[in-house]
Amino acid sequence: MSEQKIELYDGPAGGWGALKSVARTLNEQGVPVKGAKTLLHANQTDGFDCPGCAWPDRDHRSTFEFCENGAKAVAAEATARRATPEVIGAKTLAEWAGASDYELEATGRLTEPLVYDPETDRYQRTTWDAAFALIGRALQALPDPNQAIFYTSGRTSNEAAFLYQLFVREYGTNNFPDCSNMCHEPSGSGLRPTIGVGKGTVTLADFEQADCILVFGQNPGTNHPRMLGELRAARKRGAKIISFNPLRERGLERFADPQNAMEMATLGDSPISSHYFQLKVGGDFALLMGMCKRVVERGLLDHDFIREHTHGVDAFLASVQAQPWAPLELASGLTRAQIEQAADLYASSERVIACWGMGITQHRHSVATIQMIVNLLLLRGNLGRPGAGACPVRGHSNVQGDRTMGIYEKPPAAFLDRLGQVFGFEPPRAHGVDTVGAIEAMLAGRGKVFIAMGGNFAAATPDTAATWRALRQCELTVHITTKFNRSHVVHGRQALVLPVLGRTEIDVQATGPQGVTVEDSMSMVHLSHGMNAPASPHLLSEPMVVARMATAALPQSRTPWLQLAGDYAAIRDKIEAVLPDFAGFNGKLKRPGGFRLRNTASERVWVTASGKAEFSAHALPTDLATERVAERHRDQRVFTLTTLRSHDQYNTTIYGHDDRYRGVYGHRRVVFINAQDLKDLGLAAGEWVDITSLYCAEGGADVQQRRAERFLLVAYDIPRGCLASYYPETNPLVPLESFSVTARTPTSKSIPVVLTPHAGSAAADAA
Ligand SMILES: Nc1nc2c(c(=O)[nH]1)N[C@H]1C(S)=C(S)[C@@H](COP(=O)(O)OP(=O)(O)OC[C@H]3O[C@@H](n4cnc5c(=O)[nH]c(N)nc54)[C@H](O)[C@@H]3O)O[C@H]1N2
Ligand SMILES: Nc1nc2c(c(=O)[nH]1)N[C@H]1C(S)=C(S)[C@@H](COP(=O)(O)OP(=O)(O)OC[C@H]3O[C@@H](n4cnc5c(=O)[nH]c(N)nc54)[C@H](O)[C@@H]3O)O[C@H]1N2
Ligand SMILES: [Mo]
């Protein structure tokens, strides 16, 4: 771990710091040579899709695009460390429970299937045959298939995801919680009814033509570093880049491109944002409503577009005109003048893209907020024409593709009809559980077998204590995974950990080496070929694990499981048979860079109830969780806590303890707070506090308390009344009962909390 310190970072994002950080990661993972070679194949036509994030690549065959955090993600998979049965079996699970997430991950790549032995409280080596037999027995023993729950994380390839959903539906349930439920679910829920597709409408070509890019609640410098390249190019061209973020994020301010020899040699860098609006946490709805109001008041509407292409404008105009300014200022934390300035910048631009991330989606009213973004775009016809559109920036590299493949607890009837016809069975129609629903079902004893295709359910979900109780009540937990993590330590009565090939590895099946496909954030589908030797000879591919689970659990199935898992092109033929958008799938993949799925909204074809793009009239939300809690706790200062990613992590995978751009070194248990708020509390930076989250339901009286201890106070440029801290350390504070309206995404970006001085010893920040 590096030296512990809190120090203002005033360099640009990227630059030499990025190169140093990559070098250190490669070194720590013990892969200096192979790692570097691996990196050169990321996002090449003949290489693998970077497992880092879902941002697309420039034509997918151009020069290697350097990305610090993509490099870390690749290095983490290419690590020389091995979590053999001996390494994992050396400790009891009670002992592993005391290890940090960082230490669990640092054991390296899992090499053989493991089964839990209750006698010794250890994982021990098992065979694949025994593992699949156990899964088959457990699934067959359930009286109702809905007692089994099948989680998916968003790295899973299209081929694996398609087989997985087929297996689970043949088994008889739609219980498909996935990471998307905690991520961009509200984007799909908000976009589908308004523009007819639950995905973004733009491509990289649009970024080249936009003259204004709005960035809401996103930290691309850390989470989508390749996006900075697009933003920088746009800015150099003179486009406006307008950021809306409660925190001053380095990557949104300045960026030095490590691939640009000139910038590196001269320590030069480029400004990113032309304008930065530091709104309050959760203030986006009010800001957007104010922006719409201003555009309407100035009469700067695209009347032709609205007449020809939209529905519901009158009700929407009436709602914004009736809305007074004062509550918008209060809720957004911005002045009317600031909101008007943002609106004028927008309205003076011809081609506008709106991007958003988790700062928008993980709130109670996120669906309405996303529909307000759509309203803003519709007012000036900024949808379905070059240089303009909606851009929800997805997280996991194939989270969008997994949904396309049917990893969805509420599948459309047409999809189930086709699936049933192609495979000759009657798919279950009842909706399944989502992530919150899965935790509830396990707690209530309705969920008994939990199988996860990747991810880290125990650490990523809300209310850690409740989630752990839920998992521990299961009869069987199964994790299909590359590395050891918290979810394997928090296990059911019986437990399996099944190690699989990662995307960077060569995958040889009966018909030879296989490639898989993924769909990025801009609906581009392309092939990905691993090029590293597998981490262990015992690893199976994800499709093969699915096929063997299916063979064990569904002896009557007519699907040729092993044949499909032996030839991924045959899986793709089946995908094509079920999903019309994939017509000619295998053929189209031969084109370098792959192909784009049809996006009707980008053609101004509106597959909605009215056949037009829908304006959505929403009232400014008033009954907010923080305010309800503050009402009941007048004696305490109630803050709104937002939980976010540091620069040294991939979701629950902790690479290191630095957050370079925010000036944090050697710590993760920190809480960012406004200096004036610190003073008012009578506390000082460098002191330790405990965080208590308080939640009371709408109209409800009961206040539920949750607690997380020992966080270091860091004075930061953040609006008063707002706090920020890292995920997953703060997940014990996220209320299970609080999720976004309709999308049910946990509200991990707006948690009402109070701070109290830490009572116990404030000793070392546990690694
Ligand atoms: N290196 C790396 N890359 C990743 C990931 C990773 O962990 N590490 N995770 C991947 C995944 S799954 C995802 S979903 C994406 C996540 O990428 P982001 O969406 O960038 O995720 P967060 O770090 O949660 O940051 C959200 C940003 O929103 C701001 N914010 C917080 N609350 C609010 C608010 O109320 N309003 C507004 N306007 N802003 C707010 C925060 O200050 C922060 O800048 O990244 C993906 N890429
Ligand atoms: N408080 C709070 N909670 C959050 C968020 C937040 O911002 N704040 N963000 C939410 C978001 S956006 C998301 S997407 C979720 C993420 O939730 P998950 O997707 O469940 O979590 P990850 O940490 O991405 O999962 C990492 C694990 O995936 C496994 N893995 C990695 N690569 C592979 C592979 O190729 N195959 C297989 N089978 N396994 C692999 C490894 O075991 C690794 O430990 O967390 C959510 N939780
Ligand atoms: Mo995500």
UniProtKB/TrEMBL annotation:
Residues 109-481 form the Molybdopterin oxidoreductase domain. GO terms for biological process: cellular respiration. GO terms for cellular component: membrane; oxidoreductase complex. Its cofactor is Mo-bis(molybdopterin guanine dinucleotide); [4Fe-4S] cluster. GO terms for molecular function: 4 iron, 4 sulfur cluster binding; formate dehydrogenase (NAD+) activity; molybdenum ion binding; molybdopterin cofactor binding. Residues 639-749 form the Molybdopterin dinucleotide-binding domain. The keyword Zinc does not apply. The keyword Iron-sulfur applies. Keywords: 4Fe-4S, Iron, Iron-sulfur, Metal-binding, Molybdenum, Oxidoreductase. InterPro entries: Asp_de-COase-like_dom_sf, MopB_CT_YdeP, MoPterin_dinucl-bd_dom, Mopterin_OxRdtase, Mopterin_OxRdtse_a_bac, Prok_molybdopt-oxidoreductase, YdeP_MopB. PANTHER family: PROTEIN YDEP, RESPIRATORY NITRATE REDUCTASE. This is CbbBc protein. It comes from Roseateles puraquae.
